[in-house]
Structures are given as structure tokens and as C-alpha cells.
Amino acid sequence: MKKTSLLGIVAVCGIVLSACGSGGGTTDGSNAASSSGKEADKQEFRVSVLQEMPSADLSLATDTISFTALNNVYEGIYRLDKDSKPVPAGAAEMATVSEDGLKYTIKLREDAKWSDGEPVKASDYVFGWQRTVDSKTASEYAYLFEPVTNAADITAGKKDKSELGIKAVNDYELEITLTRPTPYMDYLFAFPSFFPQPQKVVEKNGDKYATKSDQSVYNGPFVLAGFDGPGTDTEWEYQKNDTYWDKDTVKLDSVKVSVVKESSTGLNLFNDGQTDDVILSGELAQQNANQDAFQSVKEARTSYIELNQRKEDSPFMNEDLRLAISYAIDRNAIVNSVLGDGSVASTGLIPSDMSKNPETNEDFTKEAGDLVSFDKKKAQDHWEKAKKALGKDSFEFDIVASDDDGTKKVLEYLQSTLEETLPGIKIKPTPVPFSVRLDRSNNGEFDMVLGGWGADYSDPSSFTDLFVTGNSYNRGQWSNEDYDKVVKESNTTNAGDPMKRWENLQEADKIISSTAGVIGVYQKAEGHMINPKVKGIVHHAAGASWDYKWTYVTE
């Protein structure tokens, strides 16, 4: 399939910023400094994030906050460049791929080291991949490895992890075998779940591995410091890694991270000079949109509602009830009046500006059309049908979501519009800390949950694969045979036929959206106030990592 890059691959991996300041866009911090001012004596960047970090374990992390950290303190075979294209990182050069697309030979750089001085070897990749797919690890991201030979059977407990299709030919050469051609494999090589892991350190620390910053070692441009525990710590730091192979181009000495959930608090900190980057939403984003320091970047991320269908007697098994809720949501009102940060209304499950038709280059969402919309009459028609079929006139549901400022406002809107449009429905907004929301989602402790997904790679399958029957990220456990069939075809029968695969993915989006299996609400953007003295920032909506060649300069 024709690979496409975008401003927004892998939004799940990073806080998304655009280039800022007059040096915007360059990846060379020294150039930015010379054109915009001299380098500051203290190369320290202070950033605010909305939530605590749920995990610093490469095999267990699943969220934006965690992956942002992991991409800055670890490094894989590839990393994404300023244009969101995979380029060699831990690899010495791009992989050699067999003609049938099933065998990758990768030569690793011999100067890469862990932060304890030990060399990064091919065996570290083998160990890391095997640990993630091992059924005992229970990694939610193990499904991403399914193109790799025997991965699915290993995760299912049918084969030993030693049979995974990755082997160390020698200390600095990997051989990877796949079961099917995988158009987005290069992007997976730049994704944290596929990074190497130091076997001795993992085994030495056991259950405590990566639960604190001093219980791991790192091979990225920074090392994690001051992290005291997943889901609870509100401050941590990335410090320059002196053992990193490209350390001479790393301009920043440190990045200090603090959790700030309220936009008003963040803005006060920014205006007082106590932080260099803070996220704004709602009225504050709208009020500051014309400020020079304000930046808004759309992510390849869809925020959606999942409806709990785990039990056969769940009212959400009724399609009319699901459609009533979907049609009752005015997505334009949410992005324009509630968020005001540049987010756009969803038209389906797949975000825009992420993937293109391999023949016509048409954007996926433009070709798909409006698969979800606000329609009060249709909402009420489906509502009456649902009540009749379920034999009830009233329902009470909670909506679980994260407790940051912007999301809480969206919850309030959803409560208001659903109760107003669908007489007899009562909604209980339930904002909780990010890590709690993830736990409750995984355990099925919700009626409805407002969550979301950012693309792990530049392909619609990063979204469509999530909701096949049995996928660990299908938290509501919606199930549809036709959906499963077309997604399976896209990954198997039609994996080598770009247009047929494209048609499968279009049909999958149509099925899940038209039945409200999952309800797409908005495509997330983040509004930031960014210190203009920070020059040369390249921030991938995709990606993962901040460009580590940032420079902090004085005017």
C-alpha cells in the first residue's frame, strides 16, 4: 500500500505541538539559536501535561502520556523525523526487505548504549518483543505484533515465545519474519512497544521494573528521572543521556514535566513564567487564540464513546438505543463552543488528514462522507423504537471520562444534550483520574465511557483493528460479524492489494459508524501556549518524540 505521512501519526504517543517561534520548523537547534537569539545558559524546558503517567513499562504502556515519555527516553529501530517519516535510529540503515515483503534484515548501530554503559544488542530487541507478546505479560498492545510470525499464537498461549519471528543473527543484526505483507511495518519499528528492553535489568527488578525511574535503564536521548510511581506521580523529568550515540546534537539539558489539569491554573503558571508550555481548552483557548504564543495542532486522534455491551441483557445491545445517543450529539457545538481548541467534529471513526486513497490520493474521511451527524428527529425516532423494544420509558447511565478541564466540560455538554433530546434518559457524568479511567475501561466498570485513540501508524487499520471481536481495546465488547469479516480481509486476503484493502477499511468505518458500535465525537486538537523563546521545535502529532535538537534561546 502506498505509505502516507501526516501531521498526526501516532498521536497516542505524544503531546502535540507545532513548530513555534520565528525559527519554527527547523530540526537544528543551533541554527534556530543563531537566527533568533543566543542560546540560554540553562537549557531546560518546562512542560505541563493533563494527566499522571499510568506506566513507564514498554510492554504495558497504552496511553499518550506514557508513550510521550517512552519515546524520549528509549529508542527503537527507527524514529520519526520532522516530516513524520521513519528514519534509522537504533538501526545503522534502513532495513533490507525481501521481494515478497515477509523478511526484514536489520543492521543495528554498534555505538548505541544503555544509560548504564552496556551496549544495545540485537538480543535486547528479541527479549523486548518476546516479553510483550508473552501471554503472561498480558500486554494490551500484543495484538500489534500479529503480522510477526507466530505472534498471535504466542499471545493466545498456543506457542512458546521463543518461536516469535525475530532472531538475533549476531550482536548487531536482526532477522524478522512476517506472516503477511504489512504496509505500515516501518512505522511499527518506530513505535515504543517494539523498542528493545534490557533483559538483565528487567529480570533483576522483577515486578518493580519501570515502576520508578531508577528501576530501568534507557537508550534514548534522555533518561527518565524523578518518576516515583505510575498513576500517582505529578512531576518527573527527562535529563540528557550522556551515553546516547547522538548526544552531541541533544541541545536540551532537561525537560521538566508537571501535571496541570485545569486550564486556568496552567495559564496562570505560563503568564508567571513558571512553565514554557501549557494546554488550554474552552473559553481560555478561545480568548487566547490570537496570541502569538498560542498554537493549535490537530491530532490523528478520535475521541469516541464506547457503550458497555459485555452482558447479553445490556440495553446497549439494542441498535436503536445506540443510534439515538449518536444522533443526539451536536459534534459541531462541542468543538466550537465547548472545546474551542481547534478540534473538529468527527464524521466517522477514522480521523482526517491521516491516510489517502492509494490511487486517487483522496483523504479517507472525505471519501467516506458524513457517517455520523446530529439529527434531533432521527435521535427521537430511534429513542421511541428503543424504548418500545426494551419495554422501558426511562434509563439511567453513567459516562466515565478523564478529569481534565476540557473533558469535564464535554461531559457536562453530553449530559445536557442527551437529557434534553431523549426524554426519560438520565446521565451521570463521572470524571476520574486518567489512570482510573483506563482501569475502569479495561474492567468494564462503566455504562458509557468517553475515551479515544490516536493513530499508532499512518493507516486506518490502527483504528479498525481495535473493534474486532475479542480485541483488548474493544472495551465495550461491541461485536459485528460483517465488521470482523472486512477487517480480517484487509489484514489477510487483501493485504497485498492496496485498493481492495482500502475498500475493506472504508466498509469497516461505514459499518461501525452506521450502527453506532462506537460513537465518534470529535477529532482532537490541542491548544497550547508556548514560550516564544523556545526555538526550533518540531513536535510530531505523530510521534512520538519531541525532536531532541530543541534549543532554548534568549531574545
UniProtKB/TrEMBL annotation:
<dbReference type="GO" id="GO:0030288">
    <property type="term" value="C:outer membrane-bounded periplasmic space"/>
</dbReference>
<keyword id="KW-0653">Protein transport</keyword>
<dbReference type="GO" id="GO:0015833">
    <property type="term" value="P:peptide transport"/>
</dbReference>
<dbReference type="Pfam" id="PF00496">
    <property type="entry name" value="SBP_bac_5"/>
</dbReference>
<comment type="similarity">
    <text>Belongs to the bacterial solute-binding protein 5 family.</text>
</comment>
<dbReference type="GO" id="GO:0043190">
    <property type="term" value="C:ATP-binding cassette (ABC) transporter complex"/>
</dbReference>
<protein>
    <submittedName>
        <fullName>Peptide ABC transporter substrate-binding protein</fullName>
    </submittedName>
</protein>
<dbReference type="InterPro" id="IPR039424">
    <property type="entry name" value="SBP_5"/>
</dbReference>
<keyword id="KW-0732">Signal</keyword>
<keyword id="KW-0571">Peptide transport</keyword>
<dbReference type="InterPro" id="IPR030678">
    <property type="entry name" value="Peptide/Ni-bd"/>
</dbReference>
<dbReference type="GO" id="GO:1904680">
    <property type="term" value="F:peptide transmembrane transporter activity"/>
</dbReference>
<keyword id="KW-0813">Transport</keyword>
<feature type="domain" description="Solute-binding protein family 5">
    <location>
        <begin position="85"/>
        <end position="473"/>
    </location>
</feature>
<dbReference type="InterPro" id="IPR000914">
    <property type="entry name" value="SBP_5_dom"/>
</dbReference>
<feature type="signal peptide">
    <location>
        <begin position="1"/>
        <end position="21"/>
    </location>
</feature>
